[in-house]
Amino acid sequence: MRVLDRNPFADFPAKLRPSQTNAKEQWFQFAEKIQGAVDEVDGLDKESQKLTQDAVLGRIENLHDVMIAAEKARTAMNLTLEVRGKVIGAYKEVMRMQF
């Protein structure tokens, strides 16, 4: 039997190939993605607050836009809190492991 020296990931698209980065680079990439997600949630909240303030001051005629922005911000914040809870739970589980 002849064994070919071939990379099993050669046919995979570039996005699906295992990365050749080290742990430190992966950590920074992960931290950047988390920071981007938190910034997006913060932006939704600020937009909601601005639209609410404009509605109170009578600058907005369509209250639907205000309510939609408020629900987007609320949903994004709830999702962020749920993910945070799952991450903390996973961290606690890892800390309970005995090696």
Largest sheet: none
Share of residues in helices: 55-70%
- What low-confidence regions span 5 or more consecutive residues with pLDDT below 50? none
- The chain-level structural class is mainly alpha
Q: Assign an overall shape.
A: elongated
Let me know the number of strands.
0
- What proportion of the residues form beta strands (DSSP E)? under 5%
What is the N-to-C order of secondary-structure elements (H for helix, E for strand)?
HH
Number of helices: 2
What value does the Rg take, in angstroms?
22 Å
Mean pLDDT: 86
Number of domains: 1
Distance between the termini: 40 Å
Short description:
The protein is 69% helix and 0% strand. The chain has 99 residues and is an all-alpha fold.
Sequence-ordered SSE layout with sheet pairings:
Elements: H1 23-56, H2 63-96
Helix pairs in contact: 1-2
Can you describe what's shown?
- The chain is mainly alpha-helical and 99 residues long.
- The chain has one domain (25-96).
- The protein has helices spanning 23-56, 63-96.
Give me some keywords for this one.
single chain; 2 helices; 99 residues
